[in-house]
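Records of this kind hold a single protein each, on a pair of labelled lines. With that in mind, the following record should read easily:
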Amino acid sequence: MKKLAVYFIFQLLIICPEILCTSVFIALHNLFIPTHIYTPHNLISSCSPVEYFVIELSNILLGLFLLWKISEILRQCIDYLKILTFLQLLLPLVAPVFLNVIISLQKKPVSVLALSIIYWIICIGSYLLFLRAVRSLAQQHREYLQKKMEIELMKKQMNDSVQLSNEYANLRKWNHDIENHIMSVMYLMNMKKYEEAETYTASVLSRLNCRPQEKQPEEDCSHEKEH
């Protein structure tokens, strides 16, 4: 699906400029030179090499402009898209256009034959680079997802570490408070102040049972005290 999507996106970017530039050229030519009417069927056979070069040049420039715009959109949507991968995806669609222009300007059959052989070699090589770029794009996507998961995992670990640190600090404070209460009770016991020790112990237990984090209402605390 990725291969088909990428192929048809770029293929449409090549076809649309060709149709647009050819139509504009035919309309302008027939408007200013009505004695010699051009149609899409007789355009290549009737136009001069200079006219054909102008059509193809405008086609290439418009196509490159559209490809530049689509590359900006792709770079905004695909953070991991590399320039080399994009050029490899672009090569099998741009190279044949340039070679067609060069071949069309040749007059000698030997030059046309040699350039035609070069044309097919470059087209096959470009297609192989296109398949390599698609595989590279998939690999870059996997690496991007893996890196994103690593970043999210690192953030989660940092948050968990902060929470554990806070809980550990609260636990140490609680242990320190309990130790102070025990020392106070032992002091009262050693001084044989048993009633005060019992009152103090009941007060401490009441405060522990009514801690804010347990969210118990005040009437429950007072009820426990009375009990």
